[in-house]
């Protein structure tokens, strides 16, 4: 059993009709509908800095987040 699964066992799942993707998916992404045409995507990822320049690290982090969202076919 991976670490995320172990931690999530102790967190109650809150039901919300506006959540299209939630913790039950076992994913690090949530999709929340604001209205019938607009949704907010929340994603969480962690990795240690691989460069010393904060701007470059931010660019890499943003690209990593977008790749994760695209891989889930959310976009």
Automatic annotation (TrEMBL):
Keywords from the UniProt entry: ATP-binding, Nucleotide-binding
Domain of life: Bacteria
Alphabetized GO MF terms: ATP binding; selenide, water dikinase activity
Xref: Gene3D superfamilies: PurM-like, N-terminal domain
GO CC terms: cytoplasm
GO biological process terms held by the UniProt record: selenocysteine biosynthetic process
Protein name: Selenide, water dikinase SelD
